[in-house]
């Protein structure tokens, strides 16, 4: 595994659009679908079981503030989304830092028939989104959430 990009402010700062006391919310730099975001604890940890009560409460609060808006912005069908995290050495995780993926889902999206291919594409970076596409989404979300970097 490579160095943890979530512990490097220069890395997270490029795609962050919301933050709280304990969490950063980032637009995934390799999104599988439009609106693919990440919830990343500021404190380095590998497992959800390491979260303190305060971190768990903050996660819930941040999730409740951001996910409904993300689903609306990206037109998720009937509030549909995937919430996933790969925990442990054999889970297929790509970064050794706890993080949660939220992917807004649409009725006729590419992955509506099978869970398997979405996770393969997550792992293999087969999304087809360019860095310019990601930058555009980050800028739009920063405006939507009133986030100013720095």
Summarize the structure.
With 150 residues, the protein is an alpha+beta fold.
Q: What CATH first level would be assigned?
A: Alpha Beta
Give the structural class.
Answer: alpha+beta
Q: Taking all residues together, what is the mean pLDDT? A: 89
The total of helices stands at 4
What is the number of domains? 1
Level-2 CATH architecture? 2-Layer Sandwich
Whole-Å distance between the termini?
Answer: 29 Å
Q: Which residue ranges are poorly predicted, with pLDDT under 50 across at least 5 consecutive positions? A: none
How is the largest sheet built, in terms of strand order?
A: 1-2-3-5-4
Query: Helical proportion?
Result: 25-40%
The fraction of residues in strands falls at 15-25%
Shape: globular
- The CATH H-level superfamily is HIT-like
Secondary-structure map:
Blueprint: H1 9-13, E1 16-19, E2 23-27, E3 37-41, H2 53-73, E4 81-84, E5 100-104, H3 115-124, H4 131-145
Antiparallel strand pairs: 1-2, 2-3, 3-5, 4-5
